[in-house]
Design goal:
The complex is a heterodimer of chains A (about 80) and B (about 160). Chain A is an all-alpha fold. Chain A is built from three helices and no strands. Helix content of chain A is about 80%, strand content about 0%. Classes of the chains: A mainly alpha (about 80), B mainly alpha (about 160). The interface between A and B is medium-sized, with 15 and 25 residues.
Chain lengths: ~80, ~160
């Protein structure tokens, strides 16, 4: 029962994080929301008894891809629609 | 763009703990969830944390790409070398000649439920360590290559 509640909460969190990624104009905030999305996916993997996959997802999805996006933002502009000089 | 003092200090404090946790996942790969790839990815995440928090000039002075390339090659050589030692002993490729031998990682596992003995499983922990070293170097090289695309003046 409690597992079911956590899974429903994770599902709503995933939808919310995805909408945040879509609507944020600040690209750094959108990147962090994508990292939060990955973290929730890792939590769901752990609930579904795949801790191996959860560690991979937390390290690659929430850690490395977020860092790659942050480096890309440093190389371009921070806000959507801004002209790159 | 330079990160704030809070981000820099937090990254530098967190780095050793992430490193230790990643090494724990690598070394306990044959007992608990995780293994070479997962542990290497966690360690690389710690390195990347420091890379993202610092400025471009500080990073290029601190971390050299060629070192991590050498580390990646070293991990692959260790992996294939450990597998090839079995051939020189007249055994099949990848044969686990260390298991139950009494030498390094060679303890035999007692029967029944136990808490997990680190000094067992023969070649498997050595393979995990090799993969961990390789993934650590490879993922850091990816991030450093990404960083080299930055414009030096604005970064």
């Amino acid at each position: 029962m409690i597992e079911m509640i956590v899974q429903v909460l994770v599902l709503f969190g995933l939808v919310g994080a995805a909408l945040m990624v879509f609507f944020f104009r600040d690209l750094l905030a959108a990147t962090l929301a994508a990292g939060f999305f990955s973290f929730l996916v890792a939590l769901e993997f752990y609930i579904l008894q795949a801790p191996d996959v959860a560690i991979s997802q937390a390290a690659i999805g929430a850690g490395l891809t977020t860092a790659i996006f942050i480096i890309a933002i440093r190389a371009t502009t921070r806000y959507e629609g801004e002209e790159s000089q | 763009m330079k990160m704030s003092k809070i981000v820099q200090t937090g990254a530098h404090i967190l780095y050793p703990f992430v490193l230790i946790f990643g090494l724990y996942i690598v070394l306990h790969g044959h007992l608990t969830p995780g293994g070479g790839f997962q542990g290497g990815a966690v360690i690389a995440t710690g390195v990347v944390l420091v890379i993202v928090a610092n400025s471009y000039e500080a990073i290029t002075g601190m971390l050299q790409k060629v070192v991590f390339k050498a580390q990646e090659s070293l991990g692959l050589l260790l992996f294939i070398g450990a597998a090839a030692i079995a051939i020189t002993l007249g055994l099949p490729f990848f044969y686990n000649f260390l298991a139950n031998s009494g030498s390094v990682f060679g303890l035999s596992v007692p029967f029944g439920p136990n808490h997990g003995y680190l000094n067992t499983a023969g070649l498997i922990p050595i393979m995990n360590i090799a993969v961990g070293i390789e993934v650590w170097g490879g993922l850091t090289v990816i991030i450093l290559s990404m960083l080299s695309g930055l414009n030096r003046k604005e970064a």
